[in-house]
Amino acid sequence: MSQTPLVEMIDIEKHFGGVRAVDHVSLNLYPGEVVGVLGHNGAGKSCLMRILSGAMIPNGGEIRVQGRAVQFSEPNDARAAGIETIYQTLALADHLDAVANLFLGRELKTRFGNLDEARMYAATKDVLARLNPNFKNLRDRVSSLSGGQRQVIAIARAIYFDTKVLIMDEPTAALGPSETAMVADLIRQLRAEGIGIFLVSHDMHDVFELCDRVVVMNKGRVVGAHRIDEVDKDDVLSLIVKGELPADWSARNLAEAPA
Ligand SMILES: Nc1ncnc2c1ncn2[C@@H]1O[C@H](COP(=O)(O)OP(=O)(O)OP(=O)(O)O)[C@@H](O)[C@H]1O
Ligand SMILES: [Mg+2]
Q1: Candidates 13, 27, 46: which one to mutate for ligand 1, based on the most atoms within 8 Å of Cβ?
Q2: Which ligand is nearest to the CA of 41?
Q3: Pocket test for ligand 1, best of 15, 45, 198, 219 (most atoms within 8 A of CB)
Q4: Looking at the whole model, is its pTM more than 0.85?
Q5: Angstrom distance (rounded) from CA 216 to CA 242
Q6: Residue 42: CB within 6 Å of ligand 1?
Q7: Are 153 and 101 within 8 A, CB to CB?
Q8: Are 170 and 201 in contact (CB under 8 A)?
Q9: Of ligand 1's atoms, which has the minimum distance to the CA of residue 56?
């Protein structure tokens, strides 16, 4: 790919005392690409994503967004650069409706400084229609909605603000099969719109269904970065568990490579 990456993380380091949570990690993300971030518990996935989302400050390394060096000291800095994060918990305000959740902390105001309810309602309707035309419950408290509907609101909130990069941490972990399928459709749609997505997941099915590339972390280091068509589930499991590809991987891939 010759275009400029949306995100370049270069030689990122984060340690806690003697624990190297992120150990000299470099990683790129291109427009319209879904990159799976995999690894055992404690491998450093969340730390790396928290660094990109401005929620954790690295000890070393550089981040570039569309070729420009950036420094994030809080999540609002990352948001201003077009990087949004959906946490596993979704972080919705349960007692508020979809409209209020979408604009929480970033409310639209009229020119007199009052909340612009009409404009926020219309904008919420638009962005939800783009994601899911059947979504009608704009004024219900989100606590009364299904897991899938809540996920739609979290995604809507993340993409409304001119988002270029979306970080999703286990987006389908708490969902049933039909809701998982819906979130998968949303991810494909966002990719088609040119958004780059980091997908942290333990679910091999989701990963092989959705990702263009996978990056596997082990004890803070990247032990494998592959196009999804270069690896199978056993290869990825071997990277996760042993930190290396099976011994026969290169032989298999050389055999399969076109002449
Ligand atoms: N705030 C912190 N203080 C101290 N150590 C931390 C902190 N956050 C993470 N760590 C350590 O850094 C390492 C990487 O943790 P991280 O949360 O990034 O793992 P992970 O790959 O997201 O795992 P999981 O799959 O369980 O979510 C772990 O050893 C963890 O204990
Ligand atoms: Mg984690």
Answers
A1: 46
A2: 1
A3: 45
A4: yes
A5: 11
A6: yes
A7: yes
A8: yes
A9: 1
Q: Is 156 helix (H, G, I), strand (E, B) or coil?
A: helix
Report domain extents, the chain. Answer: 7-16+31-194+217-222
Class assignment of domain 7-16+31-194+217-222?
alpha beta
From ligand 1's centre to the CA of 26, what distance in Å? 18
Distance 55 CA to ligand 2 centre (A): 13
To which residue do tokens 């650069």 refer? 81
Residue 202 CA: nearest ligand 1 atom is: 25
d(CA 161, CA 115): 18
Query: Which of 9, 13, 16 is the best mutation target for the ligand 1 pocket, counting ligand atoms within 8 Å of the beta carbon and taking the most?
Result: 16
Q: What is the pLDDT along the chain (259 residues), one digit of tens a residue?
A: 558 999 999 999 999 999 999 999 999 999 999 999 999 999 999 999 999 999 999 999 999 999 999 999 999 999 999 999 987 667 789 999 999 999 988 899 999 999 999 999 999 999 888 778 788 888 999 999 888 888 889 888 888 888 999 999 888 777 778 778 888 888 998 999 999 999 999 889 999 999 999 999 999 999 999 999 999 999 999 999 999 999 888 888 877 666 5
Q: Phi, psi at residue 233, to the nearest 5°?
A: -60, -40
Measured in Å, residue 122 CA sits from the centre of ligand 2 at: 35
Q: Which residue in 195, 187, 186 sits closest to 82, CA to CA?
A: 195
Q: Which two tokens stand for residue 141?
A: 């408290």
**Is the distance from the beta carbon of residue 16 to the nearest atom of ligand 1 less than 6 Å?**
yes
Closest CA to 205 of 226, 174, 236, 227: 236
